[in-house]
Specification:
The complex is a heterodimer of chains A (274) and B (267). Chain A is mainly α. Chain A contains twelve helices and no strands. In chain A, helix 1 crosses helix 12. The radius of gyration of chain B is 23 Å and the shape is globular.
Chain lengths: 274, 267
């Protein structure tokens, strides 16, 4: 019994903090999303969002860009994670450090780097122009391509490291057995490694997807005002037009989408840890 | 590598790895390059070499103010996240409370809930129940976000610790407080240290919560950079960004010393 009191006392400040500053804000957001101008309960904010072709366009852009970003991250992240798992520990350490460095750098700084690279006269447009692929010096800024490039760079380290965690646990003898029995390297990769890594790839992708649909800084700086995503629409409603109930309703819709993606993630990662 | 992999495939693999590294590190290198350029325009490759933009940071009241705010905030967050996280991690590690699994889920959930949703909820709740936004609300918000990292790093070292040490201390008559103070906390120390540096880095770099909670008097360094990027970026932005990257490199090296960088894998 006194053990229990000790444990509660140790975790108490944390529980209190999360209850007041994490759970309660979410409850407040839910409440505001269904409060009308007269103070009564209403679904008007949801109806407004879901019946306006403009906002549906924003949702659609957010979803398909996020799908594209997630697929690229998984497609590049898996081979990268596999290489990292199979090189020497020394080499792996270096690769991990080089991947973590951008991961731990502020997203504002990374996005700024892309603004320089993608803007007019930046490395990529300038090279394409000089090599004759395009007719003039142009800018890639404020395009969907810019959002995808920037977001993949933000989320790739994250996806690769979460896949690496799973690939590291794959028994190498399974691969050796397949090779001994005559399977080629690529066949082994496809029929042994890939199926075993699949839960990790899926979990990493689901997490990347939720981070992608809710990201704000990179899409708003690289995409500009003409390519709004759900997060920038929430930001505008909350800080520019000050329609808090409408912002809350949009956040609830985003939250529902995120939870839908997270449910299989929690199941996948739960199986991995348990 | 597995023996007998075709040579062309090996070559292709290393080309792939090299290109991927260029892609993820490229923007950072570009920013560092712009920061040492002599030109007053943002240009890469840099024209000439000059450190004047680093000097310009400290002549700008906006940057110095934001730097002071960010440092204050990050230090406060480091202290609270580490103290609160230590207690939470010890309790979670002992698994003596009923519902430990649910508690662990609660403590780690700020990690997977998108920060924009959390940020807007916090802004609305604070404005409705407390009043105008000020430093304390950002302090609380960043503590919530940083807490899971402290808990994870501490749980990682506790998992490798000897569970019988505390038992031994108990049989030798150590009180509850003495056991925590002299047995459990020293066992947690490397994880807490790594978590503390993580917390500092997260608060110092965080942009979304800080953006929703910004007021003219409450601008952190990432938000000052964001403001500049929205309007008129000049090489000073690159210099500030480069300083932030330098700090990140330093923090990674320190975290590696305390915990080993390999532990990042699988998170």
């Amino acid at each position: 019994m006194r053990d229990r009191i000790e444990d509660i006392a140790l975790a108490g400040p944390g529980i209190l903090l999360l209850a007041l500053a994490f759970v309660l804000p979410l409850v407040e957001m839910l409440r505001l999303s269904i409060v009308g101008a007269d103070g009564g309960v209403t679904a008007e904010h949801f109806v407004r969002f879901l019946s306006d072709p403009y906002y549906l366009g924003v949702v659609w852009r957010t979803i398909y860009l996020s799908l594209l970003i997630t697929i690229i991250c998984a497609a590049v992240g898996f081979p990268l994670a596999y290489v990292m798992a199979r090189v020497s520990p020394q080499m792996r350490l270096w690769l991990i450090v080089l991947i973590i460095l951008p991961l731990m750098t502020s997203v504002v700084v990374r996005t700024f780097g892309w603004m320089v690279v993608l803007g007019r006269g930046g490395l990529i447009p300038f090279s394409l122009w000089k090599l004759g692929f395009v007719g003039r010096n142009f800018t890639l800024m404020h395009t969907e391509a810019a959002i995808v490039i920037g977001m993949v760079q933000v989320l790739l380290p994250f996806t690769a490291l979460s896949i690496l965690g799973v690939v590291m646990k794959i028994d190498r003898r399974l691969e050796e057995a397949a090779r001994t029995m005559g399977a080629s390297f690529l066949a082994t990769l496809r029929s042994v490694v890939l199926p075993l890594a699949m839960p990790g790839i899926l979990a990493g992708s689901l997490l990347a997807f939720t981070l992608s649909v809710s990201s704000f800084v990179t899409p708003s700086l690289l995409g500009g005002v003409r390519l709004p995503v759900v997060a920038s629409s929430i930001y505008d409603a909350a800080t520019k037009t000050l329609e808090w109930n409408f912002a809350a309703a949009q956040s609830v819709i985003l939250l529902i989408g995120v939870l839908l993606a997270l449910t299989p993630y929690i199941r996948l990662s739960g199986r991995r840890h348990g | 590598m597995v023996r007998g992999v075709p040579r062309w495939l090996k070559a292709l693999t290393w080309v792939f790895v090299a290109l991927t590294l260029v892609f993820v590190l490229g923007p950072l290198i570009v920013v560092a390059g712009v920061s040492v350029s002599e030109s007053q325009f943002i240009a890469f490759p840099p024209a000439g070499f000059s450190l004047r933009w680093f000097g310009a940071i400290f002549e700008s009241n906006a940057y110095v103010g934001a730097l002071v705010t960010s440092l204050q905030l990050a230090l406060l967050v480091t202290v609270t996240a580490t103290v609160i996280g230590a207690g939470a991690a010890i309790t979670l590690h002992r698994r003596r409370l009923p519902g430990t699994g649910i508690l662990a889920g609660l403590f780690l959930s700020p990690l997977i809930l998108p920060s924009i949703i959390f940020a807007i909820g916090l802004l609305m709740l604070w404005s409705a129940s407390v009043g105008p936004v000020s430093l304390p609300v950002l302090w609380i918000g960043h503590t919530v976000i940083a807490l899971p990292y402290v808990i994870r790093t501490t749980l990682a070292v506790l998992a490798d610790s000897d569970p019988f040490l505390e038992e031994a201390a108990r049989t030798m008559g150590a009180s509850r407080w003495q056991r925590i103070r002299h047995v459990v906390l020293p066992q947690c120390a490397p994880g807490l240290a790594a978590g503390a540096f993580f917390a500092f880095n997260i608060s110092f770099d965080e942009a979304v919560v800080a953006l929703f909670l910004r007021t003219p008097d409450l601008v952190t360094l990432p938000i000052q950079i964001y403001n500049q990027l929205e309007f008129s970026p000049d090489p000073t932005v690159a210099a500030v960004s480069t300083l932030m990257m330098g700090l990140t490199i330093l923090l990674i090296a320190v975290i590696d010393r305390f915990l080993g960088i390999q532990r990042f894998v699988g998170t």
